[in-house]
Amino acid sequence: MKIELSGLAKTYNQKDYVLQDFQYTFESGRFYAIMGPSGAGKSTLLHILGLLDEPSAGEIRIDGKPLTIQGEEERADMRLMIFGFVFQEFFLNPKLTVLENVMVPMHIHPEYQGRKNREKKKERARELLRQFQIDTYEERYPSELSGGEQQRVGIARALANDPAVILADEPTGNLDEKNEENIFNYLKMLAESGKMVIVVSHNEAVKEYADSVLVLEK
Amino acid sequence: MWNMHLQSLLHNKLMLIVEWLVLLVNCMILHFAGLVLLAEITLYQDRMRMGMGRPGIGGPEEVFINTDTMALYGTNLIVVLCFLTAILLLMLCGVIYALWVTVRVSVQQEQQENALLEAMGYRRGRIRRMLFWKRSVLAILASILAWGCYQLMYREITKIFPMNLVFRYDSSLENMSVWIHIAIPIVLLALVWFAVMTANRRSGRTSVVSRLYGTYGKQ
Known about the structure:
The complex is a heterodimer of chains A (about 220) and B (about 220). With about 220 residues, chain A is an alpha/beta fold. In chain A, about 30% of the residues lie in helices and about 25% in strands. Chain A has a domain at about 30-40 and about 75-215: 3-Layer(aba) Sandwich (Rossmann fold), CATH 3.40.50. Chain A has helices at about 40-50, 70-80, 100-105, 120-130, 145-160, 175-190; strands at about 1-10, 15-25, 30-35, 55-60, 65, 85, 165-170, 195-200, 210-215. A five-stranded parallel beta sheet of chain A has the order 6-7-8-3-9. In chain A, helix 4 crosses helix 5 and helix 5 packs parallel to helix 6. The mean pLDDT of chain A is about 90. Chain B has a domain at about 1-30 and about 95-215. Chain B is built from seven helices and no strands. Mean pLDDT of chain B is about 60; it is low at about 55-75 and about 165-170.
């Protein structure tokens, strides 16, 4: 998959531009790090890429085809099929177990609809937890896990529907150095397996793992 | 998916049900205090009509309340009326504030949860439908529990303040009162349910990002 951004701009008040005339091409199988000072538009760029926000100007092309989205429902469908999000604050549901948290995106995926696919969903979630070495925690609640473990659950959830693109917004912002390394290693592993991984980070350590580093200026 | 939401309802929204019950109990006390006030005003008017002047020991109140309470009310009815009015106003403010806090906190928490679901690919219409069923189940559960508490309280309070004094001059009030007792908890819950549903619909017009990161933005 290839995502091309051209002439991308974003403003919230028609005067000050958070992003202006941004162009870049992202490809699968690579780990991209987006860095820059606060207010440079890193997270805004990530949100626009992930269709959580709309650009004020510019064009987005996916595999050469311009992205023309009619409404919010269509955006949601694209997010379901193409993107997986990892957040700094983890955003795990405290009322659900680890396994249930990973399964949340699967409940609406066409491949896992219906009662007959219940076991398939659980098996997929367990497989992801095994991949991140947290399969023994499947019945625990997020509050019983460390920050690093919670973020691994967050990454597993982002991979639930096998998206082509992983977008991570400061995934190590709330973690210590050891867990940072682990998370970057996992994300690097995902890029090597063929996914497009785009990470926004203040952390200089991300440069050691990234194939490309984009530095945004204010 | 319904299991997930039922669990969510039971774990987290149990507190919301408890809060609503507290609100309802406050409203019931408010309602009964209002009836007592009405009874006191009727008693006062009764006394004036019978030419008895300022309230004192003796007269119709002997069949209304017991001797100790009669002595208390006999001393200065105006003070008692003011006291009851002050309690009513305080409770009214408390109920309105509690209602506002409950609805606002509930809406904020749900806004973030719903924004996360949207980020994962859930359509807004689907989220609204899930919310509709969740709210409806909550409202029905709370109504049933509130109705039970309401009946228990009414029986206890009418042992102390028989309502026949209020209804003496207007028997249609008695029939109306029965319907008011049924309607109050249901109307209140319907208002809360409607307010929350409306607030959630309004929040749908703000972006996913702003609801995900809330008032203070990313940490």
